[in-house]
Amino acid sequence: MQAPVIAIDGPVASGKSTVAQLLAKKLGYFYLDSGILYRALTVKALRARISARDPAKLAALARELRVTIKPPSRPDGRQNDVRVDGRDISLLLRSKDVEANVSAVSAHHAVREALLPLQRGAVRLPGTVVAGRDIGTVIFPDADLKIYLDADPEERARRRLRQQGIWSEAGLVDMLRRLQERDRIDSTRAVAPLVRAQDALLIDTDDYTPAQIVEQIAEVFEARRCADA
Hints:
- The chain is of the alpha/beta class.
- It has nine helices and eight strands.
- A hairpin with a 2-residue loop joins strand 4 (81-84) and strand 5.
């Protein structure tokens, strides 16, 4: 039996990770953040002293990557249990060193190609909700349901500041500038740019809570399953 996949894409701070986790919990599905594999590879590259600017060595390392991703086993901030070569690296995935290098690592076409089988192989029964920026267009183009979440850039900047627990007008201006630059990079990059899949359901999250968005998606998903039955 093939596990059904719900793909949720969108720009930074559009709410996709929060919505994906809540949706997975509601459906009893596995939640997968596609960025985990890039972060796991970055951890291994840093240990091996391989430069984030060396696509050939990174791709070779990616092809050798032995990673397992499971639901979180403890409430210590981890989104999943992630092991590389048998070692738990779950809490290293958000370290400063990884944050500083993961964007460069994931930008290489050779790296993305090498990790594609691992990403597709990470789905689990009874189903998987996957969040990212190219899930419905590249990773799972045949996903059972594709969602694209969006929001006004200023609202996304406010959300990111709330997540960080800080607030100031100057901070909002700076965060807005950084998010807009990230949007520009993500949407214009040569490899797997951030775009809405043609068959993705667009949801503007400005005026909805995550719980309300989850209900919308769950209703659509259930209606499609009934129609296909």
